[in-house]
């Protein structure tokens, strides 16, 4: 995942919602076991991931991965083997779901929903507004992203913890 840092020469100029979401990945907050957690939807990721820190802090039960694989992060850790999963129920507002996540050491957020979830739930992504629409158990949901300033605050909190 690559992200431009806010600021720069044009950082202080205001822009409309469609322009402000143009380069943003979908970030939001969710509830996991009554705890507020960060959730990222990244259409370019090939797996659903849960941070090792979240698994440890919430004392979640892990299961062996049915098809272990090697993962290469774009950092100094290099290659790692993903051989554990965790099934986690979560909610965003009234939308409730449960996902099997691969457990990986990630700092960007607590959970990351990648292309498999988009495929499984037939998610419709609006690239202009950065909103997600899906139907689950016969109910239609529209998920809204956090503002870039809220995302920045979340990132600071995650790093502090």
> Can you list the strand order of the major beta sheet?
1-2-7-3-6-5-4
Mind telling me the C-alpha Rg? 16 Å
CATH superfamily: Acid Proteases
CATH class category: Mainly Beta
Give me the CATH architecture, please.
Beta Barrel
Please report the distance between the alpha carbons of the first and last residues. 21 Å
Shape field: globular
Largest beta-sheet characterization: 7 strands, mixed
User: In percent terms, what proportion of residues is strand?
Assistant: 35-45%
Question: What report would you give on this structure?
Answer:
The chain is built from four helices and ten strands, in the order αβββαββββαβββα. The chain is globular, with a radius of gyration of 16 Å. Strand 1 and strand 2 (35-41) form a beta hairpin. It has one domain: Cathepsin D, subunit A, domain 1, CATH 2.40.70.10. By secondary structure, it is of the alpha+beta class. The strands form two sheets. The chain has a seven-stranded mixed β-sheet with strand order 1-2-7-3-6-5-4.
What is the element layout, followed by pairings?
Layout: H1 17-20, E1 26-32, E2 35-41, E3 49-51, H2 52-57, E4 62-72, E5 79-92, E6 95-104, E7 111-113, H3 115-120, E8 124-126, E9 131-136, E10 139-143, H4 148-160
Parallel strand pairs: 2-7, 3-6
Antiparallel strand pairs: 1-2, 3-7, 4-5, 5-6, 8-9, 9-10
């Amino acid at each position: 995942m690559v992200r431009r840092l806010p600021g720069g020469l044009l950082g202080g100029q205001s822009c409309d919602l469609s322009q402000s979401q143009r380069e943003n990945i979908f970030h939001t907050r969710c509830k996991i076991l009554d705890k507020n957690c960060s959730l990222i939807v990244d259409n370019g990721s090939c797996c659903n991931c849960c941070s090792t820190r979240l698994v440890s802090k919430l004392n979640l039960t892990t299961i062996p991965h049915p098809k272990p694989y090697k993962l290469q992060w774009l950092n100094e850790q290099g290659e790692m083997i993903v051989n554990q999963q965790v099934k986690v129920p979560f909610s965003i507002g009234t939308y409730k779901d449960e996902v099997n996540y691969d457990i990986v050491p990630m700092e960007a957020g607590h959970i990351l929903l990648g292309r498999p979830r988009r495929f499984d739930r037939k998610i419709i992504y609006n690239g202009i507004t950065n909103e997600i629409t899906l139907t689950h158990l016969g109910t239609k949901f529209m998920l809204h992203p956090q503002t870039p300033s809220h995302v920045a605050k979340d990132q600071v909190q995650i790093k502090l913890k």
